[in-house]
Design a protein that fits this description.
alpha/beta; 16 helices; about 350 residues
Length: about 350
């Protein structure tokens, strides 16, 4: 297997391999590298030297490999979400299992022909590393797993994009940007491009620019609301709620997000009191580990009993709303006011 950085380096240097398996959760980076492979490959004429394969026509993959590219030196075949690399149930048989065996043997026996005539790219959401086909591809080509990027990796990529447009942004501002806009690479790229355009060449992206121009994730806004609650600033907390409603966030989604956030604060409180690992306790992904400090800070605003009462109030609100006993917006505002008045009980 190869790292994402090394894969990107090889493609940039024009070192195209004949077989690739790109799989994992970070779909933006997968698609970005597929674009780079296509660009390095050159002119693509669909049906001639450019073939698209999916689950519906995967049975034709060997035939497509063997068919000449008519007038072109090589053929680019993109096999997307074929299911060939998925883990199968034990003792499962069928056409796909037979195809896996046939394709594995074909690649093994004809690798020299493939090297001369084809660039074959498998794109999968998941892949079974113990499968024969996986090992055959790994032995004869390039396998790269695209996990969600960690904050430091995201920061590096965003910094490189800003540098390419001659726009300055410091490390603390990038961290704040990630906290506000999440860790989805596609969302971050869209938002940073907007900020780059605003800053202009030789300009600097500032925290205020992010506050004014970026679309913050609901989870990030809930952090802001909770900060206001912790400081007993009900007017600001209600203003944050009103802004969410004005932005057409569904009230039910706001309620669920509030519940999940306070549940995590409660778990944080328990984990810290019992010397438990916070990342594992909160079930955070590697690219979310930076949130631990924010949860630690906010958990200090509340004691365990307060958090339990808030969670119960949110559950009761959900029940009463579904029974038609209370308006959801009024219910959420009531809970916020009740906490800020110190009457949570």
């Amino acid at each position: 297997m190869i790292t994402i950085d090394n894969l990107e380096k090889e493609i940039k240097e024009g070192k195209l391999k004949s077989i690739y398996l790109l799989y994992g959760e970070e779909t933006y980076l997968i698609e970005n590298n597929v674009k780079k492979i296509k660009k390095e490959f050159g002119e693509c004429i669909k049906g001639i030297n450019y073939i698209l394969i999916d689950e519906q026509n995967v049975g034709e993959i060997i035939s497509d490999i063997e068919t000449p590219s008519f007038g072109y030196e090589k053929k680019l075949i993109i096999a997307r979400n074929t299911g060939l690399l998925k883990k199968e149930a034990k003792k499962k048989t069928g056409e796909q299992s037979k195809l896996k065996e046939k394709l594995s043997k074909y690649i093994q026996d004809n690798i020299n022909i493939i090297n001369d005539s084809v660039v074959l790219v498998f794109i999968e959401e998941e892949a079974d590393t113990k499968q024969e086909l996986f090992n055959i591809i790994d032995k004869n080509g390039i396998v790269c797993k695209f996990d969600y990027q960690k904050p430091a990796q995201i920061e590096k990529r965003l910094k490189e994009i800003c540098n390419a447009y001659k726009v300055k942004i410091d490390s603390q501002t990038i961290k704040y940007f990630i906290e506000c806009c999440g860790t989805n690479m596609q969302d971050l790229i869209n938002e940073i491009r907007k900020l780059i355009e605003f800053a202009g060449e030789n300009g600097t992206i500032k925290k205020d620019d992010i506050d004014q121009l970026s679309i913050k994730k609901l989870e990030s806004v809930i952090f802001d609301l909770t900060d206001d609650l912790g400081k007993k600033d009900i007017s600001k907390a209600l203003q944050v709620l009103q802004n969410l409603i004005y932005a057409k966030e569904p009230l039910a989604k706001i309620l669920v997000t509030l519940y999940n956030h306070f549940k995590k604060l409660y778990i944080t409180k328990l984990a810290l009191n019992n010397n438990k690992d916070l990342v594992n306790s909160l079930n955070l992904k590697p690219n979310q580990s930076f949130l631990t400090n924010k949860y630690k800070i906010q958990s200090k605003f509340f004691d365990e009993l307060e958090l339990r009462f808030i969670l119960q109030d949110l559950c009761d609100l959900d029940f009463n709303f579904k029974c038609g006993l209370i308006d959801l917006q009024v219910g959420i505002e009531t809970i916020l006011c009740r906490y800020c008045s110190g009457k949570v009980s």
